[in-house]
Amino acid sequence: MLPEKVKKCLSRMSWKLSRTVLRRGKGSNPFSLVDYTSHTFRKMLNDTGCTQSMSRVGRCIDNGPMEGFWGTLKCEMYYLSKFDTYEELELAVEEYIFFYNNLRYQKKFKGLAPLQMRNQALAA
After folding, report:
1. pTM score
2. 67 or 10, higher pLDDT
3. What is the dihedral of CA 44, 2, 64, 12, to 10 degrees?
């Protein structure tokens, strides 16, 4: 049986999960108490159109880039603001993702934003 906190979180997000990849989290993540291999959990993900991403223990290379991104987002946006509602937080995250992809120039990309770098690589 899934915890109510997990059911509530998935139902709240279900309208936008069509291309979502759910990664296993730790700490205060409401999904941290879930058996990710249970048939009930996998069915709930399938019903909402969510793709499950799990690596083997000790093989978390697929998670590294996302962990880095969320760390950057928290430092540059989340910790600097106060959000009174879920909707305010959601909007701030969406705006930050747009900023990060289109306007945040990065030294590792030779002064380009990530989408500029990607478009340049695809044109080559």
Report:
1. 0.53
2. 67
3. 60
